[in-house]
Amino acid sequence: MASIKKILDFSAPELDIFVRLTGAQLRSRLEPEKGIFIAESPTVIEVALASGLEPVALLTDERLLPSLVEIIEKCGDIPVYCAEKTVLEGLTGFALTRGALCAMRRPSKKRVEELLEGAKRVAVLEEIADSTNVGALFRSAAALGMDAVLVTPTCCDPLCRRAVRVSMGTVFQVPWTQIGETPADWPERGLERLRALGFKTAAMALDDHSVSIDDEALMREDKLAVILGTEGDGLSKTTIATCDYTVKIPMYHGVDSLNVAAAGAVAFWQLTRKK
Question: Which residue, among 159, 162, 177, has the nearest Cα to 35 in the 3D structure?
């Protein structure tokens, strides 16, 4: 059964894991393969628990304790820290947490080959730095039927706090892993791994040789990896040159491009229709 402890001071060491450790420190708080991430809000915590993730500690506004009884029971024998709202307001973005944060163990990473067994439609996020965009892309991938998400070694961590929050917990529901361990593993090596698994690759980019997102040959592909690039610069020239398709979304009124999260949603909806 969980033990409940009231925190009276924002500087209490028990709060370090929630308010003072950086994302990098959380990832290596324990053994590297057993790092920690923070799930914010009761809704996201519920999704994480339902996905089988292991809680480490819970922090909440003490007024919410009665409404969190079921979550606390599901968390089992972990410390539950509570504090008055005035204490927790020292936490940046506290209002966005809906009054509850849960430290959880990071799931073990799967190999790309294992993750993509049976997959038909995969999203690949190349060097996307903005955590909001990563979270939004995961939410769209889940909602619109993508089978998995791959992130390149220089992409934002999908389990960083904002990405988890923006994804509304779908980052726990869509299978994902990192493709490659170092920047040198992408794009050539990563694209070769995808081809070896039978995937055709589609680079989302504005290019004179692009085909439309509703291209018949593209839509007919049995296994397709949809690759989206970083904000601003988009995909690297090497990625575009190496992919089987370069794909664009037709636009009007002189608009030249969409935000990467919006472009991803359009691409996922169109290219999962075959499914």
Answer: 159
Task: Report phi then psi at 161, rounded to 5.
Answer: -55, -45
Residue 24 pLDDT: 67
Phi, psi of 194 (to 5 degrees): -65, -40
User: How many whole angstroms from its chain centre is CA 193?
Assistant: 21
- Do residues 30 and 155 touch, judged by C-beta distance below 8 A? no
Mean pLDDT of the chain: 89
Q: How far apart are CA 177 and CA 202, in angstroms?
A: 19
Judge whether 23 and 82 are in contact, CB under 8 Å: no
CB atoms within 10 A of CB 241: 12
- Position 32 scores a pLDDT of 46
User: Residues 161, 165, 170, 174: what is their CA dihedral angle, to the nearest 10 degrees?
Assistant: -20
Q: How far is CA 273 from CA 40, 119, 214, 217, in A?
A: 33, 15, 10, 13
The side-by-side arrangement of strands in the sheet containing 55-61 is: 3-6, 79-83, 55-61, 100-105, 36-40
- Quick one: pLDDT band at residue 4, thresholds 50, 70, 90? confident
Q: Per-residue pLDDT tens for 210-223? A: 999 999 999 999 99
Render pLDDT for 73-126 as a digit per residue (tens, 0 to 9). Answer: 999 999 999 888 887 777 766 665 677 899 999 988 899 999 999 999 999 999
DSSP state of 15: G
Please give the Cα distance from 27 to 50 (Å, whole number): 22
Comparing C-alpha atoms, which of 105, 96, 7 is closest to residue 56? 105
Give the pLDDT confidence score for residue 1 in this predicted structure: 58
